[in-house]
User: Fold these one by one.
Assistant:
Number 1:
Amino acid sequence: MNYLIGVDLGTSGTKTVLFDTAGNVMASKTVEYPLYQPHNGWAEQDPMDWWNATAVTCKSVIEESGVDPADIKGVGLSGQMHGLVMLDADNKLLRRSIIWCDQRTAKECEEITEKVGAERLIEITANPALTGFTASKILWVRNNEPDVYAKCAHILLPKDYVRFMLTGEYATEVSDASGMQLLDVPNRCWSDEVLEKLEIDKSLLAKVYESPEVTGYITPEAAALTGLKEGTPVVGGAGDNAAAAVGTGVVEDGKAFVTIGTSGVVFAHTSDISIDPKGRVHTFCCAVPGCWHVMGVTQGAGLSLKWYRDNFCTAEMETAKGMGKDPYFLMDQQAARVPIGCNKLLYLPYLMGERTPHLDPDCRGVFFGLSAIHTKYDMLRAVMEGVTFSQRDSVEVLREMGVQIDEMLACGGGGSSPLWRQMLADTFNCEVKTVVSKEGPALGVAILAGVGAGIYKSVEEGCRAVIRTNPPQAPVAENVPEYEKFYQIYRGLYPALKDSYHNLAAL
């Protein structure tokens, strides 16, 4: 029997899962590690923690399953995007990695925009200069730690550092490289123009592969530490969202997924590149060779519901504890008793500013229409509907760009709520499904490893062989126009409040 390994390098920990070729989980192991915040707004991690976690988890799943390492035909890597790993000429780490959520690089983003040009930057990299992306981090090190930058011989992304430790190869792949702001996203290669304008030596960067391509093989040293067999192929893999797309089967036109975690994501596959000239959504190369994905982000999705739970639902939390239930289960039951529109109450989920479609760090959350008739359960449902409307904003931008969405998969904590899924189906006016497997990114990169190992002929074929979905929730015909009425009012609130948000922020 043949097996595949998916390694998912997250921010809180690394999870390694061993699958058979039908996608069944044979063993799974997670190891956590710390986040360092030396200053307000900074975020760093030690790449050696990622490597140690990978070695421990690989060894664990092999031992727990009893699988012969010779039967493991490939390894796929998924990971947090945008982190900066710098090595010297002897492959020693020069500093801790500045990771995706670090916010120190505002000045460097201005520098990038000035040197490349705002419009040209979006044309080449498909995105405006953002503090989360890797290019601004490289410039920050050069501007603030010139001694470190002078010694730098190799720049890698988080999962690609783990790849280097497994294979000895400096390699990346198109989906993760898209988030560096140095890749020519339409042409799927490093941009000589951006590198020249930013004065970054191309030799520092790794070779770029497509996601299912073999990038290297397990070395004897890595085999001793991980339990993997020497010579096992390691494929390109994918950034976390691109890997999740493969793990949910979103690898063909018309398919999309919506995630309601702390933040919210609407992610759609497209075989024709489409770039928003306003920079409201991300366009990246996806894990399917020759294809792209477009992604809208809501900053405060599940975060809004958690904030409401923690501040207003103490009784439900206590009751749920006594019943051995999740508080969100009880909250769902209460919200389901409230009519669509929450008795004319709307919520704007801008607790952390907003990304799509407003690109406004100053906007903040709002309850609109509050009156003496309203209860805390009206407010609870309004929070859920407001997050749904914010996801609809992303869908509308994608539709405006010509990206087709016929089928939506729901992921993340919010996706486990039947009520929230029905809101999504009714508001988007399309079917919403869930995937049987909960492994997401790890399963996605295991499928990519199967393509690289020749087990599946293509990413699409691998997904058809492995991904199974639960019965869909279809939109309820009479609900669709009801949500539409409230969504149109919701859309008008941000423009009406925009100046007030900025005046408040300036106080």
Number 2:
Amino acid sequence: MPDPLSVILIQIDSLNRHFLPCYGNDWVETANLDAFAERAAVFENHYASSMPCMPARREIWTGTQEFWWRPWGPLEPWDMPIAYLAGRAGITSQLITDHYHFFEWGSHNYTYDYTGYEFIRGHETDNWRTEPVVRVPDWAQKMVERRDEAARIYLRNVQHFKKEDDFFGPRVMRAVGEWLDRNWAHAQFFLHVDCFDVHEPFHIPEPYRSRYTDADYRRFSPWPHYGRIDEGASALSPEEVAWVRAQYAGKLAMLDTWLARVFDRLDRYSLWDRTCVIITTDHGHYLGDHGWMGKPHAPLYHTLAHIPLLVWHPAGAHNGARVPAITQTLDLYATVLDLLGVGAPQRPYIHSRSFAPVLTGEAERHRDCAVYGYAGQRVGVTTDQWTLLREHDPQAAPAHAYTHQVEHLAGFGWPRRRERALTFPDLEAGRFIPGVDMPVWRMPAHSGGLPRADLLFHNPTDPGQERNMAPTQPVVVKQLEGILREHARALAVPEEQLRRLRLI
């Protein structure tokens, strides 16, 4: 077995693959990510797994494919997070984040096992500052009109910002550099960087605000609503969609500029030779793609699910090359533990598979397919050739969530919904999760929408997923349906999921 490494895992939230030059973009400037991609392994077929924010994080922390059992929530008592196992092995761990969902009611305890953590306050609706907003600045007028109280919370947090390094991405990356200044000499460490940028609000200073657009910023909101861009509160003109895309690109360019601080420390302290560096995301983000904005419970097009993964391994067999193996967010857990020399525990509820053998050239393939979804909603399955987006049928069976904690699902992460904890009619306790020898709650879970037709796409000839082939390829639909059924059966997911996804 190779000598254990230190690991730096950098998550850039809501990072779209198609905005990165290393994946073919020709107009966004990301010089530091480009340089990293030239030396790292660039994974071509990396996919999300459970979405959105906190479901993805439980997968990364614990290796459990979350969406089959529950939506947004905390770590469970039986979970064995990376930082916990690293600590037992004597490895120093640090979390640096501005991802405020970690500290909200209903999603707590992700920080507990790290040797240390640093929380950078104020992003989105983090309940941080309380001083009144004296004056709404010109860039925020439309945002306040459309977002009201949420916009005012954000304004309270950022009204004191004067310069670029006041903003969130720069503050995170500066903190990473400072931590490495103080801690580079550890024999081994796990540094976990969870950056909420490039998440909305797409509020950025100059020169980034006007780098990719000449439009008057005062006419638009940097915080668009989720949903269809052609209807309802989320409706946007083509001009505003273009402006929002330009702000997203500007935020990415700003974050890329500050990533130089991290790479500088790797150079300064000669860490490249003993450190694995992983850069990835939790999921993508619609910016007008397929007529959507944000990450609503829409079909799981590759805009959301097909995500970037760049990995530097000091002895990597694919450094500076492309890797075709199919991997998922779910696999980061076992991979990081492998690289640290700890190894992932073998439990029925741990579904992660290490792709470290792919990095070192011991294996070419990893997974035969990627399966991803939202809890109680839609699911996608992707192979080398095909992608099936399977719509759920909310009328086929009720949706449930399985967890030890009642309240977090009642609130789904939002305190204003907390009263639902008192109105559940059908709570039931039992041993519902494979390998977990303790009772958990089974409770009704939110599951909206109406059943819609399946979507089928041929990956090599239609990477943009514009041509639905389900009506003309029923045999392929059945094949992928069988793959999805086999995957679900192997994980022993709740029977209701098979019914809801029309797999039985």
